[in-house]
Structure formats: C-alpha cells, structure tokens
Amino acid sequence: MTLSTVRGKGLFLIADPHLADTPPGQRLDGYLDQIMVKLEACLERADELGMAVVILGDLFHKPRDNSNKMLVELIRIFGARPKDNPVWVLVGNHDKYQSRFTEDVTLAVLEAAGVVSLMKDAGQQFLLETDDGPVLVCASPDGTSLPKKYDRQPDDPKTVIWLTHHNIQFPEFIDRAYSIKELPGIDWLINGHIHRPQETIKKGQTTWANPGNITRLTFTRRSMDREPAAAIWTIGCEELEKWVVPFETFDVVFPDQDLPPEEHEIEGESNYVKGLERLAWQRTQEGTGLKQFLTDNVTRETQEGELIWELYEEVIDSE
Ligand SMILES: [Mn+2]
C-alpha cells in the first residue's frame, strides 16, 4: 500500500469540534455558527502557516441526523481544499452510532463526497513531507487499542507520530484506561477526546500531548477561564504551540446564571428538593441536566423509579 503524501511545515491539530444543530448541554442558540467560524478560522490559519490539517475526532456531537444545511456547508468548506492537502479526520466516539462507524453516520457522507481523508482504521495514515524531513503519521480511531510500539522499517521516516481519541491517564484523569509510558518507535502521541487541555508528558522516546478541544461544552468555572485553542506540531518541537481560536465571551454562549457547584462543593447534599432547584438552571435542550438529576436521585430498582426512567428515555428518544 502506498501512503498519501502531504507537504506541510507541520500539523495543525483541531480537537473535538462537536458540531451540532441543537446546542449541546448548556450552550445557547447560535452554537453551530460559532463552531463553524472556529473551524473555518482554523483552516485559514493552517493554510497561512502551510500546515497539514488534522481533526482529532468528534467532528460531530451527534453521529447522525445532522441537518443537510450543516452537511452542505461542510462539503463546501472541506471540498474547496486542494486535493493534495485535504482535512484528515480521525473517527471519534461521537462520530459513531452505537459504537460503530457505518454508512449511516454523517461522517460517512463526507467521506463518500470525497471531501475528507478519514482515519478510520488503526495504523499508518499519511506521510508528511516537511522541509526538515519526512514524518510518518499514524492513528488509532476510537474503539481500537493504542499501539504498544511501532516497529520501524529501514526506509521509514525518522519521526513517527500517533494520533488518538482515547481515555488516557493524563494528570487530571488518572482513573482512565490507558497509562502513559514509552512506546518504542513512536515519538509523539497526540490525543483528542479529553476536552480539558493537559500537561504534555515525556516518557522515554515518547511525548504524550492532549491539547484540549476548540469548543467549550460544559457550564463550569474551567470553561469560563479557558481560551479554546487549536495546536501546532512541528518537527523537533518540545511542546505543541497553542493557537487560540475565535471565541465569544462566556456570557454570550452560556446562560446568565450562577455556575453550578463544583464537585467538591456538593458532597453530602443530595436531597431531592435541592436537586430540583438545581434542575432549574440545568435545563438543557438535550436533557443532560435532567439525566444527571435522575441518576443522582431516582433508582431503577423501584417500580416508580423504573417508570420515571422509561418516561425520560421516551422523551429523549423522540427528539
Ligand atoms: Mn469529544
């Protein structure tokens, strides 16, 4: 198999855009346009810098039933790119329906339209030709396991990068599935999926990075303090370079309400009435607040509890 070659000064990495017609979580109206603006700004910036473009998974928030308007717009934007510098899209968990990538999902339409290069199978993806030599870009889409190592062949490039969309034990996520360790033969592992930017960690030959996503999805102090950014990788760099994407201020994209209590503040306070009060501000267009409330307060073990949960699922499914 011959790998496609992309000429570029490096990689322009865009993590987890989560495009959606209906604003997810507590996000307000105008969401889709705001994320489209980010995406287009990223492509424009990548072109200015002469970089190859990579989306690190979860291009979409929902795997299917996205509007034709959104799709047509994406086909227009991605399709306008030169054939030898396409957008490389890693398949994330949100891009799949019932954990599978099938012809039924929105991302498959973009692939069939020939406007993206999909990274849907684990392993080698493309060769990046830089002024400082070639780079082998590999990837593990959601649902595949991470490599333990990469066996270099004699004519392989000196630098090997692995793109992932996985639950990795970065410092603030030590309960996740994959530990951080040296992966012989792999120089960089760059992860999407974990939306909160994490410290870059070097273990032996392998540098592990998690730049964080370009879209603020949670109504929290952290989102309030964070400048959403894309990331730039170049040969020989020690750290990804951050490129802050265009973003609206927090109060424009989230409701004008008190922030919910942080996890450590709500300990020991799980009674129904307090929960109901909180539900008032947790009201969301896709029912995440309600689901959290039910999870905290309603057990399926009782008959009434089961009935409430069934009603909830009926409402959510019919949307
Ligand atoms: Mn995601």
Please outline what is shown here.
It is built from 8 helices and 13 strands. The chain has 319 residues and is an alpha/beta fold. The chain binds manganese (II) ion.
Describe this structure in words.
This protein is an alpha/beta fold. It has 2 domains: 4-250, Purple Acid Phosphatase, chain A, domain 2 (4-Layer Sandwich); 260-317, no CATH class. Helices cover 26% and strands 21% of the residues. The chain is built from 8 helices and 13 strands. It has a 7-stranded mixed sheet with strand order 1-6-7-8-9-11-10, with no helix packed on it. Helix 1 (31-49) links the parallel strand 2 (11-14) and strand 3. Helix 6 (272-282) runs antiparallel to helix 7 (288-297). The longest helix is centred in the N-terminal third of the chain and has 19 residues, at 31-49. The termini are far apart. Manganese (II) ion binds next to loops. Manganese (II) ion binds at residues 16, 18, 58, 92, 94, 193, 195.
- Which ligands are bound? manganese (II) ion
Provide the CATH topology of the largest domain. Answer: Purple Acid Phosphatase, chain A, domain 2
Q: Could you tell me the radius of gyration in angstroms?
A: 21 Å
Strand order of the largest sheet: 1-6-7-8-9-11-10
* Overall strand count: 13
Mean pLDDT: 92
Helix content: 25-40%
Unreliably modeled segments: none
Order of helices and strands: EEHEHEHEEEEEEEHEEHHHH
